[in-house]
Amino acid sequence: MSNNQMMCDLATGVCGVAEEEKMEIVDFNQPKKSIDVYYVTDPICSHCWAIEPVLKKFKEQYGHYFNFHAVMGGLLEKWGDGPIDPANGIYKPADVAGHWREVGQYSRMPIDGSLMIDNPVQSSYPPSRVFKVIQSKYSDALAYEFLRRTREQLFAFNQNISDQSILIDIVNKVGLDGEAIVNEAEQPIGQQLLNEDFTLAGRLGVRGFPTIVMINEENKGVKIGGGRPFEYYVDGLKQILDVEELQPKQQPSLSSLLEKEKLLFSKEIEVMYDVEQSEIDAFIEKELSEGHYQVKEIVGERYVTINN
User: Fold this and answer.
1) Distance CA 286, CA 278 (A)
2) Where does residue 299 fall: left (phi above 0), alpha (psi -120 to 50 degrees), or beta otherwise?
3) Dihedral over Cα of 238, 235, 203, 78: its sign
4) In angstroms, rounded to a whole number, what is the distance separating the alpha carbons of residues 44 and 161?
5) In the predicted structure, residue 10 carries a pLDDT above the cut 50
C-alpha cells in the first residue's frame, strides 16, 4: 500500500491519491442573526405585491443573516368622504382599479382590480387582524403564508378579502381553523394586536408601504421606502452589517420552491433564477417533473401550481 494519502471525491465519486494541500482552518460557525428586518406592509398594498419577486429572492438568499418580521401598517380603515390617496388620484374605491392595473402591468405581478368597481374591499383591517392572530397563536411563517394567499386572492383572483367567508376559506387552506381564527380576530384582541403593529410602524418612522427597516445590535438602522431593485436591499444589508461582501445561499431548486410556495408567478421565477421571460416555459419544463405541475395564465401572466 502506498504511503500517499487517499481520498474519495464527494462530487465525482472517484477515489484516488489526494492532492497535496496545506492544512486548512475552517470556520463552522453559522452567521449570528444580529439583524432585524422589519417589513411594514398591508394586505391591499399593490406596490407590496409588486415587490414579492425581489423580496422572496432576498429572503431565500440572505435570510440567514437576519430575523424577518412582517408588520401591518393599516392602509385603509374604511372609506370616507375625503381623499384616501390623492397623490395617486384615489378618492373612492373605483379609483383604485386603474391604479392597481398600472402597477400590475409595470411589475408583471398580475392584478385584475375590477372588484374595486363591482365589490370593493371596504377595509384592510379584517385581513390584517387575522394575520396578527395567526402570528400570535402559531408562527410568523404561517401568518406570512396567510398574507401571501390573501394577496393572491385579492390581486390575481379578484376576491374581496374584507369578506369573512373569503378569509375563512384562506385560513382553512393554510391548514388552520378558519372560522375560529376569523371570529377571534373580530374580538377586541384582534384590534389590540393590530394596534401594537401600528405603534411599532410609528416608532420605525414609516410613512408609506412597502417600507423595509434593517436594525443592527447597536440599534442603528437602514430604512428603504418603496419598491427597489434586488441589489438595493443587498446593499442595505451590507451597510447595516458593515461588511463589503455577503455570502448568499444557493437558490432552492424550482421544484422545492414550488413545493413550499404552492403557486409561483412567472415574474417570481424569472427574478429568482435570472431567467428571461422568453425562456420561462423551457426553464419550467426542464426543472419540474412532468405531471407534477400545471402552467396556467391569468391577467396575461403565466403562473405555475403544484398538482395535489
Assistant:
1) 14
2) left
3) negative
4) 9
5) no
d(CA 120, CA 253): 38
How far is Cα 272 from Cα 164, in angstroms, rounded to an integer?
34
CA 10/CA 250 separation, integer angstroms = 18
Note the pLDDT of residue 34: 85
Contact between residue 302 and residue 295 where contact means Cβ atoms under 8 Å apart: yes
State whether the Cα torsion 260-264-268-270 is positive or negative. Answer: positive
Tell me phi and psi for residue 277, to 5 degrees.
Answer: -55, -40
Residue 74 grid coordinates: 393599516
For the chain, the farthest-separated pair of C-alpha atoms sits apart, in whole angstroms, at 90
Q: How far is Cα 105 from Cα 76, in angstroms, rounded to an integer?
A: 23
Q: Which residues contact 183 (CB under 8 A, 6 or more apart)?
A: none
CA 202 from chain center: how many Å? 22
DSSP per position, the chain: --SSPEEE-TTT--EEEPPP--------PPPP--EEEEEEE-TT-HHHHHTHHHHHHHHHHHGGGEEEEEEE----S---SS-SBGGGTBSSHHHHHHHHHHHHHHH-S----THHHHS----SHHHHHHHHHHHHHT-HHHHHHHHHHHHIIIIIT---TTSHHHHHHHHHHTTS-HHHHHHHHTSHHHHHHHHHHHHHHHHTT--SSSEEEEE-TTS-EEEEES---HHHHHHHHHHHHT-S---PPPPPPHHHHHHHHSEEEHHHHHHHHT--GGGHHHHHHHHS-TTSEEEEEETTEEEEEE--
- For the question of whether the overall pTM of this predicted structure is more than 0.90, the answer is no
- At 80 the pLDDT is 80
Calculate mean pLDDT across residues 133-137: 98
